[in-house]
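Data availability (excerpt). All sequences and predicted token strings are deposited with the supplementary files. A representative entry, ATP-dependent Clp protease proteolytic subunit, is shown inline so that the format can be inspected without opening the archive.
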Amino acid sequence: MPQKGLFYEITNKQKESKTVDIMVYGTIPSLDTDTWRMTNTADRFVRDFKALEKDYDRINIHINSPGGSVYHGFPIFNAIAASKKDIHTYNDGLAASMAGVLLLAGKTVHTAKNALLMIHCTNGLAIGHSQDFRDMADMMDKYNGIIAQHFADKSGKSLEDIQSKYMNYKDHWLTAQEAEEEGFVDQIEDYESEDAPPEDITDMAFSQVMAQYTGENPEKKAADERGLFQRLTAYMEKTFKLKADPPAPQDPPSPPSNQTETEEDMDFKNSLALLAKDQVSAEDIAAIRAEIEAFTGANEKFTPDEVQARVDEAVQPVQDQVDSLTQEKTDLETEVTNLKIEKGNLATSVTDLTEENKTLKLDIQAYRKSGVKVDNSGGENPDHIEGDEKESYLHSEADAEVKALRAEAGIKAKAE
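Structure token line:
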């Protein structure tokens, strides 16, 4: 089983044959339904994959996945497709959505004979104003074009053919034989998936397909379905600085009052109690809306200054962090510039020393050619060097007389 928090597992390392398997079983990447965050990103997979390339010549990637995020999936796809190693991808049961695209990254694409391939357009989620939704739609269209191009490249079909047949906002389920006929897989292997998709998977909504591979139990799934209301409750508590009290037995309704509640009187306990229910009805939502409108005024709108103040308050911590990182970047750039200057100064010093060394060598050569002995022996005809005169030996009168007699007798004097 993959390590907790990971959507893949590296296994079956064979040092002698230099082969290794990667099991991509689950959503890409894993989704933590407690925090609604993706718990693993592409960088971890890519680092592990690059490390395997150093030691193994054949890498087998086994896929049994409903897909996941294109933002995480495509960096993984690109790392696999760009590899110089012998990469084989296998559809062990289900290769749907982004997992179906990932299947195409191998140099050779295999499939179990009972596996399914699912192709569809990109799904997305946006929160914001109308332009945010238009931007999201434009981005999904771009990804649809990229996905269609990969299937066209693998199958040899035209881009227009793939787009008209598969990029039409429907889920397209292909058996192993159909995927082979379309040119999306290279060969059907003689094995069946041990974890084959449910027989009714083609009738499921894509969210149900994803749920099959997240390991959720029914109780957790029911709790997740209430997650939206729980998050809304937390948002109201934070916005209006409230804290929900535990639901208490309801008292008989109080007699109607002619006094209108003020902002200080309202505590939103009714709305918070409704949101805490397992199932919230349309009538409950209407009651919540009425209570909020009673607080803000049915037609009240925030002024631009109030909106900007809220935005500034939310953005300021991020801006402070950006400013800090910008200053850190500037300091690092200054340090790099100083190091470059120091490197340049050192290079200049080396050049000067090299030139000085050349000059000294030329001086030595010229000195040697001049005939002057470096050891001051003088040679046969030494040039006079001031200060190089030999100091005369000191002799006694008797020595001088002996020397004269020797010369008179023709006896050569010993070298002094």
